[in-house]
User: Fold these one by one.
Assistant:
Number 1:
Amino acid sequence: MSFIKRLSTTFIARLDGIVGEIEDHEAVVQTSIDEMRHKVAQARARLNQMQREEAQLQSRIAALHEDEQLWAERAKSCASTDPTRALACIERRQQCRTQAEQLARGQVSYRQSAVRLSRDVADSEARLHALSNRHSIMRARQSGTAARVATAPDSESSLRDLETSFERWDVRLSEQELRIGDTSLEDNLDQAFSREEHDARLRAELDALLQENAK
């Protein structure tokens, strides 16, 4: 079993065991999901590194093939004039070919490992996504339950206490309203007198104006 699969299996078993034993389920689930997310991120980083290293291997193999061809051309160019040098070129050509073959064999194993890791990372990311969604759903359920519990008294005693609080609140508001009402009455009376006095001044001014026109 691969590392990521072992991690997922261990994670699920550990999560089930811990959640069944303690009360703070949300904190345990969140911590475990964070731990798994960290491990998956590490595996993803390793996969990216392997893919870069494989690309470097491929570039190295291609360069060795080019060197192999180059030494072959050099051997041809000096075969008739300097056989010893031509043989040295052939030896270099063989070294390039051997190194390229060795790297090619290593690249096959490297690629197979990268493919397995890529599959494991994809599976783990899918499982992590499913667990995160399930966590969100459970949190929503918990919030809804907490809201219902908060708005539903669980005993006659708590209901009586609530009614008493409403009654005291009502009395306090009534007292405040009465005090405000008295002040409002005084203000209304003052406003009524002020309005009558103002109207009287307006009528006097109107009468004076009419008398001037009559003259």
Number 2:
Amino acid sequence: MKFSTLGAGAALILAAALAGCGGKAQFAVQGTIAGLNNDGLVLANGSDTVKVPAGASSFVFPHQIPYGTDYNITIQTQPAHMSCSLGGASGSAGHNVAIAAQVVCNQSTHTLGGQFTGLFQYKDATSATPDTLLNRTVVLLNGSTGGQLTVSSPTDSSGKGDFVFGSQVADGQAYGVTILTQPVGATCTLVNGTGVMHENNVSNLVLTCATN
């Protein structure tokens, strides 16, 4: 028993002596994660990689790095339907300094829009300037996000154009666009106003207007 105790003590002293003679402390390359709801995230530190599952709040790379070694964490693969960003991702492993990068993930968002036709300017015969052309406007509402959009008649007499909501829709979220207010002296209809946002912008809404 005494021999084993002395042997263990001697091993610790020898390890300390070796560290003092050039052995370098090892640091875990690690960090925190916020908002990761989907699988697919892969982080890299050079050739060292780690796959991070959905719901994870932290990560640790398989290999540690010695004192004084540079690290540069990058996102090799974004998670499905999400976009992640990195903070504190590069530096040099220093004495008593923990490597703690921050990964923040958000659901990807895309634009929602389409085309309109038949929305012409008009003249108000009852106004003081009856020959002045006025714009017809249609107000659209995306009920899923509360975003509103006013579509106005163009000035080139074509009556047609494109429209895009200012508020984007998250990947995987349903959208439902309806006509909130009709234009003066015209009636509009909307098709393709409902659906679920996927990985690309939606631009197939069709607003068709006709003068009464």
Number 3:
Amino acid sequence: MREAYSAINPSDQSYHLVRIRQGSTVQDIARGLKKAGLVRTELDFSRYALTRGGNGLQAGDYYLQRSQTMSQIYARLLEGPNTEVYRKLFIEKRAPYARQLQGQYRVLASINLAQTILESHWGTSTLASKYNNYYGIKAQGSQKSVEMSTREYLNGKWVTEKDRFAVYANWQAGMLAHAQFIRNGTNLNASQFKDVLASGNYRDAAAALVKDGYATDPDYAQKIVAIIENYKLNQYDS
């Protein structure tokens, strides 16, 4: 029995997503864990969980490792979704491309990453998850687009209005479009984001995003800076 509850592979540090839906039974959870290769059999986890009551296992997205024992997996499910792991993986997945784009377009990687986090709510917004637009970039001309509601800060108050947003094939295309958008500006003003490009650090660049009209939110620069400093995104600028 001890073998059944031990780690599948103590040396495997990769993460595997297990999505637990609201109302899932212990058996449903066991099935998901087995499918992800995190337990040897569904019965192993069901037996382990039920002998401990099987209560308090929370719904949500979990990033688990095959190096975790049954007790560690069970404890994680009791504690709740490990959002911090999702965010770590979200950043690590995009950081290399953000650095590459910085070299090509002079848009700081930290700014690129912070904007995708803020604008897409860590990739969970409809615009990001369905249309690969992680930056709230509005469509220009005949560009492929989708009409969606957006909140803008106008004349001292927040208003909701409809607008056309660009649609991209994948997240890489969206990141590239963001860098090109900052570098090339809009159809009406090719040098619109010149202050962003001229900024030598993330604080100045964040302030320039507001000055150059990327966002209407008066607190946008502070939000970008807070994200960069909280997740140490400026490490990718060098």
Number 4:
Amino acid sequence: MIAASDLTGKLSVPGGDGAEQDDGGQAAALTKPERTLRVGRTSYVKGGPVGAALPEGKSWFKQSPGWTCGMTAMYGDFVNAAEPSTLKALLARSARKGTTYTGSMSVKDLRRVSAWTRDTLWWQLAAGVKVHWTLVVSPSGLPRTLTTKLASAKVGMSATGMKTTYSGWGARVSIKAPPRSAVTTKLDPEKGGLRLPPAPKR
């Protein structure tokens, strides 16, 4: 299990930031950087659509249990080779060539073995969708890059690719929850009709 994480996501919208179609600030907020701190299974989200709906004087939204990412999670990589259980599953289902491993498995099976995936995928993918990957490791076996692709002609899902780079193995890292005075568990109903996904299962 990953003890803590600090992720920042930002959507890039072709043709502009969508401000001309804004609804209570939410459309423009989609293109703002969104940072998620996660300590244990408690998440703190700042910026993005959630940030636009925070009450005055608060800069972080708390959810416990919470997701690894905020609203931009569905556009990020839900496969994390830094998680031991995920890495074990990837290697067991791969063909190896030197330090490169390639393979695939159903998202359903990935959910079964990976707590990270279960706590990232807050939206549902159709049954039968597979994730394909290419994992490159260092000579000592530590992940360096992970390229994943989702595709399913059966459900009409075109290929969607993601790439994650891993570095700084062994470095000391400190991830702390934000100050309590800056945190809230409530969103301002007057600041748009944002509907958050339900919390992950305990």
